[in-house]
Amino acid sequence: MQTGNSFFSQMPPVTKNLIIINLIVWLAMFVLPRHLGADLETYAGLHYFKASDFNPAQLLTYMFMHSTGSLAHIFFNMFSLFMFGMTLERTLGSARFLFYYISCGVGAALIQELTWALTWEDTFVRLIAKTSDVDFAEAREFVTNSEFTAEGRAWLARNLNMFVTIGASGAIYGILLAFGMLFPNAPLYLFFIPVPIKAKWMVIGMGVIEILIGLSEAAGRSDGVAHFAHLGGMIFGFFIILYWKKKGTFHGGF
User: Partner of 47 for a Cys bridge, out of 54, 57, 88, 172, CB 3.0 to 4.6 A?
Assistant: First the structure.
C-alpha cells in the first residue's frame, strides 16, 4: 500500500542524481582496482598537467571520486550537497544548478593546477632532498637542470604523478558560497556551536580559514587537503552568482 512519495523521490533531480553518481563511483573505487590492476585514481583523479598520468578529462572526473580510506570525505560532501543543493536547485533551476556545480568543480581543478604549478618544485625538491639524503640546493639543481635527458624528463613526469586530487569539495564550496550570497541572513547551526550563524558570516569564515591553511600548506606544512581548490570553487562560484544577480534571473534554464 502506498502512503505517498518518499522524501528521496521528492528531491530535485540534479541533486539526487549527483549524490547517486558519487556513491556509485565511491563503491566502484573499492571494486575496480581488482580488475584494472591499479587504483581508479590513476585514471580519473586530477593530476598535475605536466605529469605522465594527466589527461584533460580529469578536470571533470576527479570531482566524482572520494577517498576510500575514510567515510568522512564522501559523507560530509554529500551531506552538504543534500542540505544546500536542494535549495539552490529549486532557486536556480535544475539546468542552471548543474552548470553551476560543474563549473565550480572545474574551476577548483584549474586553481589546483595553478597552485601545483607555483609550488610543485619546492615540494618535490624537499622530497628528493629528504629521500636522497642530499641538501636542498643539490636537489633543486637536479630538478631544474636544463640539460635533463629525455629519460630524465620522463622520470620527472612519472614522479609528478604523486600530486593527485579527488573529491567534490571544490564544487561543494561553490554551493556553500552561492547559498551565502543568495540567502545571506539564513541562520545556520554548525556542529558543536549551539547558536545560529548567518550564512554570510559562515561563508566568509570558511574562505578565510581556507586561505590561511592554504598559505601554510604552500609553505611546506601540508595536511593533504587541497585548500586552494576549495577556494577555487568559491571564486568561480562568486563570479557566476554575481553575473546572474546582475542579470536578475535565477529560475529556469538558460
Answer: 54
